[in-house]
Write a structure and sequence with these properties.
9 strands; four-stranded parallel β-sheet; globular; five-stranded mixed β-sheet
Length: 100
């Protein structure tokens, strides 16, 4: 995708026909913004940053060159990118930390 990828609030990406998040790759040349309450699937490869807005979720992975920003979002790794510390796909939930 050339440029920025932004999902609308409460958007949902649904995989059909046997597609699995571990096999879907999104290559984005600009910033990625996952909208409030949205759910995305796949491995996101970004040239800049990815921002997960409040209530957003991902079944996949976010690999970007500058920053991953999360506002009370949930990310679950698909089986193919699972590490041994979390072999069951346990969700990783974060809350924003603000430092002065």
């Amino acid at each position: 995708i050339t440029g920025t990828l932004t999902t609308a609030s409460n958007a949902v990406i649904v995989l059909t026909g046997g597609a699995q998040a571990k096999n879907i790759f999104w290559q984005v040349s600009g910033a990625i913004v996952i909208g409030v309450g949205s759910h995305v699937e796949g491995v996101f490869l970004g040239a800049t940053a990815i921002t997960f807005l409040t209530g957003s979720s991902m079944n996949g992975a976010a690999l970007v060159q500058t920053a991953v920003t999360m506002g009370s979002a949930t990310v679950v790794k698909p089986t193919a990118v699972q590490n041994t510390a979390s072999p069951t796909g346990t969700p990783v939930t974060t809350s924003p930390t603000i430092s002065a």
